[in-house]
Amino acid sequence: CAAFTGLVIGLISGFFRAADAVLMRVMDAWMSFPAIILAMALAISLGASIWTELIALTVIFTPFTARVIRSRVLGIAGRAYIGAARVSGMSKWKILVVHVFPNVLPLALVQVVILSAAAMLVDGAMSFLGLGIAPPTPTWGNMIAEGRSYLVQAPWLVIAPGVTIMVCVFLLNLIGSSLRIAVDARARTLSEMQRLRTRRPSGS
């Protein structure tokens, strides 16, 4: 959900300059709140449930995705083929859907992977504090919270879910970094191809 809402906000903010100032100031104010404190406040206000956690994760991570997508859209909006589409009479919304959206979609998918790692940590913290998904629904955070009572007798009840969270977060970050490198390389290649197409022949 955070990736989707951030994608929509980033597209609109990056392509429609009139909306950019307002949306980015809202995102800046949004990001000024500590993530875990904001999640805890929502959980306390709405009650511990899977829907509350989903809302909390969306609220926390939407601004980060929006800023990343906006940055990419600003770069795309200045390219020659976008100017050609505008000159041809294509509407802004059609340009956004046809030309801009396909170019930022790979980056949005990278954000999904990266945010999944961060969301796993927030979920573990909220569940450990009793503010996330309530038992008997099993989560790694719940397992750690329940296992701490038996830390001396059965330490693996805490160690196993803790190590699992660490490994999953590490792997997701590794995958996200690899995907980001691939997406950035693809963007540079497409930009270079577009530059070569639009460059005038020497002597003309």
UniProtKB/TrEMBL annotation:
Its placement in the membrane is given as: Multi-pass membrane protein
| Pfam families according to UniProt | BPD_transp_1
- What's an example GO cellular component term for this entry? plasma membrane
Subcellular localization, as worded in the UniProt entry:
Cell membrane
Keyword Lipid metabolism recorded: no
Q: Which InterPro entries match?
A: BP-dependent_transpt_permease, MetI-like, MetI-like_sf
Question: What residue intervals traverse the membrane?
Answer: 34-62, 96-122, 156-176
* Keyword line: Cell membrane, Membrane, Transmembrane, Transmembrane helix, Transport
Q: Which family does it belong to?
A: Belongs to the binding-protein-dependent transport system permease family.
Protein name listed in UniProt: Peptide ABC transporter permease
Please give the organism.
Amycolatopsis thailandensis
